[in-house]
Structures are given as C-alpha cells and as structure tokens.
What we know:
heterodimer; A: 329 residues; alpha/beta; Rossmann fold; nine-stranded mixed β-sheet; 12 helices; B: 190 residues; alpha+beta; Archaeosine Trna-guanine Transglycosylase, Chain: A, domain 4; 2 domains; 12 strands; 35% helix; elongated
Amino acid sequence: xxxxxxxxxxxxxxxxxxxxxxxxxxxxxxAKRYIELFSYKGAISFLxxxxxxxxxxxxxxxxxxxxxELLRKIKDxxxxxxxxxxxxxxxxxxxxxxxxxxxxxxxxxxxxQGVASMLPPLILNPKPGERVLDMxxxxxxxxxxxxxxxxxKGSILALDVDRTRMRALRSNISRLGVRNVVTLLLDARKxxxxxxxxxxxxxxxxxxxxGLLPLIPERGRSRSLYDMxxxxxLQYELxxxxxxxxxxxxxxxxxxxxxxxxxxxxxxxxILKEYSGKIELVDISFYGEKGLTEIYGLKLNSExxxxxxxxxxxxxxxxxxxxxxxxxx
Amino acid sequence: MQIKEEGLEKFKKIIYAEIAKLFGKEALRLIxxxxxxIILLGRGNNVYEAFLVNNELKELLSIMKKINIQNPFxxxxxxxxxxxxxxxxxxxxxxxxxxxxxQQLRRNIVIVSDDAAKLFLYGRDILLNSIIKILPPIxxxxxxxxxxxxxxxxxxxLVNLETFIREGRRGNIxxxxxxxDKGWYLRKxx
Lengths: 329, 190
C-alpha cells in the first residue's frame, strides 16, 4: 500500500493537468490521474459530465408494487424509461414533481437510486432464504434492494458506523416494507469473529466518490491524496474481513462509486495475491468496461479484467467499479 | 440498544393483547403461522422497542451473540414502543405492524377521499365527510387508506365510526385524529 502511495506521489503534475484542474475545479492530482486513465481527450470528456450532470433514476420496489402498476400511477407526472440492465430500474426523463416527495415515494413504491448502484446487489444475486451480509449499508439503497431480490426471505445483516445514516437506513427499511434485516451500528471489520457464516457478502466500500463527480462536483476539491490513502487501507481491511466471514463457495461483491484504480483494482489485486488459491474472480457479464490490468505503468493480475467499470461519459451512469469474488471450496 | 430477555414474557403478553384488541385473535394466529417471535430492544430509561422476527433473523442474532454483539439498531418488523414506569406499562403500536396486519386481514381500515388522503399525508386529521368506507371492526386506533386501499397512516377515531356510518351521518366534524402518517418519512425519517 505504501508503494502505491509513493507511486502516486511520483506522478508529476504537468501543465495539462494544472489547466484541466483550473478549468473544471478539481485538484491537480486528480486531473493528472484522469489523463493517465483516459488520455487527455478522454479526461475532458469525463470532466464535462461535471457540467452536464446525470439523469436521476428510481428503483421500483417490487416488495410493494409491480413495476407496471407503479408506471401507471406516475405516468401523468413523470416520463420514465426502463434501464437496459436492471428490469426494475427507470431513468426519469422528465418530472413535473419532486420525485422525493410524491405519495408513491412515501408509500415505498420506489427508491431514488443511481442505475450503477443498482448493479452490485443484482450481481451478488442473493437467493430467498440465504444469509447475507451488507458491510457498509446505510442509507440502505442496496440493503433494501437485496431484500427485494430475496423477496423478504432469509436474513440480511446490515452494518454501518454512522449513527445518523443508520436512522436513514431504518427509515428506508420501514418505508420500503423490508422485514428480513438486522441493522447494527458496527464497524464491519469487527465482525470477523463470527467465522464463515454468510452465503453472500456485499462490500460497497466507503470511497472518495470520484465516480459521483457529475452529481457532487465538490468532491473534485474536497478529497486529498491522503484521504485516498486512508480509504484504501479501510477498503482493503473490509474486503479481507468479508473473505473471512464468507462460507466456502460463497460469493463476495466488492464495489465503490469511484473510478480510481487505487481504490478498486489495486485493492482486489492485493487481495488476490494474499489469498492466492483461496479465492477467484468471477466474470460479470454486464454492460460496461472491463477492469484494468495495467495502469500508471504497473501490471496487475490479468484476472482483473473480469471486473466491471462504468463511466459517466460513456455509460451515462455514476462512475462505478464492481468485482465479484468466489471463495473456493 | 440491548436485547431484553428478562421479563420478556410479561411484555409479550401486553403486546399480544393490544394486537388482539386492534385486529382480533386472527392477527395472533397469523403471527404464529408465519413463525414470528417478539424481540425487545432497550432504548434506556425503561423504554423498549418491540420487533417481530422470523427464525432466520433469530439465528443471525445468536451468531452475533457469540462475539458478544447484541445491540441491534433494528430488526425485522417494527411492532411498537413500550414504556415501563412504576405504576404501569404502556404500549404504543407502530405503523409498520399496523400496515402489515391491515393488509393481511383487511379490517380496522378507514378509506378516505383523495383530497383527505393528500392532506392526511401532511399531518392533517380526517373529517367525517371525507370517509368513503370503513372495513370494520374499527378499533381505538385505526388504519387510514386511500381508495386504492394504500395504507397512509394511523388515526384515532374521535366518534363511534361504525354507528355514524351505519346511520349515514355526515358533517365537517373531525372524526379521526392523525397519530402518524407516511409523510413522516419526509418530515423526520431521514
């Protein structure tokens, strides 16, 4: 991990990066990394999404209503379009009302959720009756989606460390009619003592949120390289804990709303090295780009191309990274 | 929040008695049939929150107990709040349970007009004139629904609704006092 920091520090900030950073209001180190990641032209295209924003989207909550019925109810107030990869996900093309204050919202018929963030639960694909761990659960978009996929059957342990966000999680669980969740104010790294107990584990890790720049442009300035380093340590420890509590043959999905390789491929690469022969990466056949296997002149595990990347300027979603790992029997 | 085990039976009795008052013994049979158990979480100052949990969630709790973690924030279906003081134990039923039982049993529901439904979600009371239909028996707390039988919240009847409706009485008097409505999710829900 230290070496990665040294590598990042060694990336020299040149004139192009400084110009981009001024034009788009982001830190120079971010601009330089985007040029490395996308080329100069690609970086501009990515950064332009900060100005354009992204379409809002909702997840129809099939625990409470069928999607057809929901569409019938909202059709006079909203124009929506189904997303190609989530059958119950809809982009809001036009709305006459605040989508967070409609009767349908209050009745728990939908959850406002980015399309990319609907993918990790879908890829984890828990079955009704399974025991699932959601390590960083609040405010509950993915937890409630997991419950939806599981048809409220089985059990989900939803952990988070933030008391305020925990209240939001509980409120969302109640609003959406979820009944198979235990919420616990706990640092997910402290759960390892339970042993290999979970069929499926979701690690939607805290991150710099670089994939959310089109939605929260302030992130372009508010995060430093040091923040990233702290988060990388946390991400690594969380994923390690996830492996320890997953049953043999069980599945772990690691995701972040960041496009930074440091928080994604680098973390999974370290884990693959440490648990060589004990875990494997599973192909994700979804719309999106493959995971990176080479960046900043570093060669990474070639299996990482099985991971999934989504970019705002290419896929019109939040920037996201998703990896699916299986613990070998 | 700690799981309360001591004296649980006493609290359970009170909760089940209240549920039976609200939705009849059929509600208790339904809870039993679904394999639900009651769990109490202490919130300090003799206040407890009650939840209905299935066996899978109970199993999860026992796993957590192994590493001495027994303080869930919430679990399963929220039933209501219990306040214990020296002289008595009071139980305040929660919206989640009321909604669940009303939907399953189709009783203790007051159906109101579209306008009244909208206003109710903003915390307003229900006028007698706004009532379209009732699904009896109506208890001391009842569930408010719109014409599509979508549950909007809980209200306290201020008049004998069954008699008023049977006798065809109308008027702009407040017939039901808003106790909790789903607008709460916006106003306080986080």
